[in-house]
Write a structure and sequence with these properties.
By secondary structure, this protein is an alpha/beta fold. It folds into 2 domains: about 5-285, Alpha-Beta Barrel (TIM Barrel), CATH 3.20.20; about 290-514, Aldolase class I (TIM Barrel, Alpha-Beta Barrel), CATH 3.20.20. Helices cover about 40% and strands about 20% of the residues. It is built from 18 helices and 20 strands. The protein has helices at about 5-20, 65-75, 90-105, 120-130, 145-155, 165-180, 205-220, 240-250, 260-265, 270-285, 290-305, 320-330, 370-380, 395-400, 420-430, 455-465, 475-485, 505-514, and strands at about 45-50, 50, 55, 80, 110-115, 135, 160-165, 190-195, 230-235, 255-260, 310-315, 330-335, 360-365, 385-390, 410-415, 435-440, 465-470, 490, 495-500, 500. Helix 5 (about 145-155) packs parallel to helix 6 (about 165-180), helix 8 runs parallel beside helix 10 and helix 12 (about 320-330) packs parallel to helix 18 (about 505-514).
């Protein structure tokens, strides 16, 4: 598989050898503008970006100063300037122009140099060109080099945005935080988690939350006198819509870096900024805590080490089945709120029971009595999320125009043809981090006992992490695990003795296989 990150770094080393750290550009002898604090409170970082390896030209005719001015008028907290020349078509001249503009407007925003920096000398150049912060990518720097470059930035009085994407990078981040403590520079460190894998440029919108959860767990494990205070974590990349910006704010990040969407449409930048801030404010003030995805991400971190998927058992209708699934270690339990289903759990009192498994209310419309019942249970913290199952495109778009969009939820899409995959693309544009795919049989919604075709499962796997339902049972679970490695497996009718009643022997066999 093509490793784009390695290509970029190899080419960079060649260019440095040929052109020097200035890449042939004229560099100011000294910095002229004051250093502006980088993201001291929650806010947005909007990006001056012409192209990318994955999308090609994004805004080839972009005027860096004019774009930056529109971002400042939109209310952004900081501006990221891509200075990588070969793949992103940015330059150090862009950085100088944006810094000069910020200076002329009273330095209302901080300016970040975003590049694949490899040596401390590049930080000195960024500083002299007017950058208030530099991006350091943990994946491409060993720990000694990373610490050397961070120390250089702290000595100059500018900040670092340290980009993380895996557990090894988190370990490096804590070494940097130790250094920052020694240099009295905690306020100069922002941790950024990239939803985009820089090796393949594929996007996973749950990665930032998974890494954020990992950081929080490590912080909690430290003795209080050694624990860094006010560690800021932002989410980077993958935001394709205003709704996705608001959703990320809901997840409790201190900031968000947006590139492609605002570069293509800078006039609309203010809507992205306001949406993120609205989401962040909702997160702070709402009585419902937006922790469903955090809990899922923590579970995924634990499961990945064992190579097992998350297990959801759907169609729970009685206490005995609930207790059995708890005993066997189910991660999620599904309760169907649909009076046409033989597995309808509308009146079930099991919601009063505390469970280790996350409880999910499954609904098929958001203008029904059943949906309102699920919402009330969610607000009472008796369930953890709502699964929106089998929605049409029109209903999906309608849902995102309601206040319900801020409830913990995910969508399940019934798939029987490639046309159904368009719903997945739509949901990804709205920023949905995970989408469950289920078989489609006529007008039935779930519990069909039918599997999705191998071809369509592979198509979905190329689009998103695979959350799979439809026809799962003890006999085929092993083959499905080996062939598709789903991140979540959702079983219902394949584990039943009769409709709505689980067969405990089948449950035992299913969990044994997994």
């Amino acid at each position: 598989m093509r490793n784009i990150l390695k290509e970029i770094c190899d080419r960079r080393l060649q260019d440095i050898e040929k052109l020097g750290y200035s890449y042939g550009h004229e560099i100011p002898a000294e910095r002229t503008r004051p250093v502006v604090p980088f993201l001291p409170k929650p806010g947005t970082i909007l990006e001056v970006k012409r192209a990318s390896p994955s999308k090609g030209d994004i805004a080839p005719g972009l005027d860096s100063a004019a774009t930056a001015k529109s971002y400042i008028e939109a209310g952004t907290s900081a501006i990221s300037v891509l200075t990588e020349e070969n793949y992103f078509k940015g330059t150090l001249d862009d950085l100088k122009k944006v810094a000069s503009l910020a200076d002329s407007l009273g330095n209302k925003v901080a300016v970040l140099r975003k590049d694949f920096l490899l040596e401390p000398e590049e930080i000195e150049i960024a500083y002299r060109c007017g950058a208030d912060a530099v991006l350091l990518i943990a994946r491409i720097l060993d720990t000694p080099k990373l610490l050397q470059m961070a120390a250089k930035a702290f000595t100059l009085g500018i900040s670092i945005l340290l980009e993380l994407r895996d557990e090894e990078a988190v370990e490096k981040a804590f070494e940097v935080l130790k250094l920052a403590g020694k240099m009295n520079s905690f306020d100069k460190v922002v941790l950024g988690v990239n939803a985009r894998d820089l090796k393949t440029f594929t996007i996973d919108m749950l990665i930032p939350l998974k890494i954020k959860s990992m950081i929080e767990k490590k912080l909690e494990a430290l003795p209080e006198n050694e624990r860094p205070q006010n560690v800021r974590v932002i989410s980077e990349s993958g935001i394709l819509s205003v709704q996705a910006s608001e959703f990320t704010g809901n997840l409790g990040f201190d900031g968000i870096l947006m590139g492609e969407a605002v570069a293509r449409d800078p006039v609309n930048a203010g809507n992205y900024v306001r949406a993120f801030l609205k989401g962040a404010e909702t997160k702070r003030n709402e009585t419902i805590k937006f922790d469903f995805w955090k809990k899922v991400s923590v579970s995924l971190n634990e499961k990945e080490k064992s190579g097992k998927p998350l297990v959801k058992i759907c169609g729970i209708t009685n206490d005995a089945d609930l207790e059995k699934c708890e005993e066997l270690g189910a991660d999620l339990l599904g309760f169907i709120f649909w009076n046409k289903s033989p597995r309808n759990a509308y009146n079930l009192e099991a919601f009063e029971k505390e469970t280790k498994a996350l409880k999910v209310g499954v609904v098929v419309d958001f203008v029904t009595e059943e949906f309102q019942k699920a919402v009330l249970l969610l607000k009472d913290k008796k369930i953890d999320a709502i699964q929106l199952h089998g929605f049409s495109k029109e209903n999906i778009e309608g849902f995102f125009r309601t206040e319900y969009k801020n409830l913990p939820h995910y969508f399940a899409v019934n798939v029987s043809s490639k046309e159904d995959l368009e719903k997945i693309e739509l949901l990804q544009r709205y920023g949905e981090p995970r989408i469950l795919v289920d078989a489609k049989v006529g007008d039935a919604i779930g519990g069909t006992g039918t599997s999705i075709s191998e071809e369509l499962v592979n198509e979905v796997s190329r689009m998103t992490k695979l959350w799979l339902a439809g026809g799962l049972n003890p006999e085929n679970a092993g083959d499905i695990l080996n062939e598709f490695t789903p991140e979540l497996m959702d079983a219902s009718s394949g584990l039943e003795a009769s409709k709505g009643v689980k067969d405990h022997a089948k449950l035992n066999a299913y969990f044994t296989v997994i």
